[in-house]
Amino acid sequence: MITLTDLVSAIGAASPRPPQDGTRAHRITVSIGGQQIDGWSDYEIASSMVEPSDGFRLTGAFDKQAWKLCKLDSSIKVAIDGTTILDGFIDDRAKRSADGTMEIAGRDKAGRLVQESIPTVAGFDGLLMVDAIKKLAAPWFTNVTLSDARNRSIRRGKGHRAPASGEPAVFTVKGKLDEEHAGRVDPGETRWNVIEQLVSSVGVLCWSSADGRELVVGKPNYSQAIQYLFRHSRELGSTVKDLQYEESIGDGFALVEVHGAGAGDESNYGDDVCDFIGTAKDGPNPDGTGRDFQFPKRLAVRHHALQDNAEAARDAAREMTRRNFKRRHMTVSVALHGQVVAGTLMTLFAPNTLARCIDDDLDLDETWLIYACSYKGNRGGGETTEIMLVPRGTEFVA
Known about the structure:
By secondary structure, the protein is α+β, with helices and mostly antiparallel strands. The protein is built from eight helices and 21 strands. Among the domains are: about 115-220, Baseplate protein-like domains (Phage tail protein beta-alpha-beta fold, 3-Layer(bab) Sandwich), CATH 3.55.50; about 255-325, no CATH class. About 35% of the residues are buried.
């Protein structure tokens, strides 16, 4: 097992460097109908735990055979060095005669869930939440899992994989959808909108696996071992091209109140029958200030059809969590799409993994979670990855 000291030493000694002769360190390929296409000169592949779907845009020299393969709505797998990063469909294609190029773009299979309406509003009452999500995601996804372990291992490619303890428990799957949740499934709603409502109600996220085999319902794994090192240092040398650290409370509040009413029934003509209230505080101070607020800043919102004060409190907590997500945020730009952590093979950067982040200017040395990656390549700028991170322990909600 690699220790944190070993990690710093290994990455410091074996950090990958872009080739100096203009050749590519990575091979970007797509597979359509069992046939492989490579030679892409410019590309951007995005993957995130918090966005509904991942996307890609690839540009290469025009080739008639490749063009014929890249039909609209074709099923496509996008890979980096043979590791599938995205499984989805082609939404757009274009040919440019002046520079002799062709371009394709699209999204993973979750893109269908974002746009398609639910197939029916019947049959959700009394379902287990996982079964309801499976029904909403079919036929694009046939499996729903509560563990990201398999997906995370696949995404990192053939390089060293830091060990991970058990995935965090997300909720008791024995519970069935009650009238409150089943009643929110309305005609015309998109599949993803309903899925997001379900997972948000229990404070978890939903994202698709890189290989398109399953939807993952869960939380970030903060108990796994650190996988990467991002260091900005003038004395020890940097492993990053740029490290942007941000703090913001512009969208946050020290106190959030949710006011709502219980939905009426036929006996009282559907009138709201009872008012409920729930609060969430950014600290223990009763005057409305918080851990990052020197002066009171409060938000009051109204939600309809609340069951009780407890649900109002949960809604308030979720509202505060959403607004606090980027209170401390880091964007790291690094050369290539992975690091050599152990051995000689590169470990690809992947969401839901941990990194040690060091910035000597800020005296910062902390563990952060990668929640999104954007892999980019172009003829002039080489190969880079833009990585989005939040501090270890940050709460997520859909």
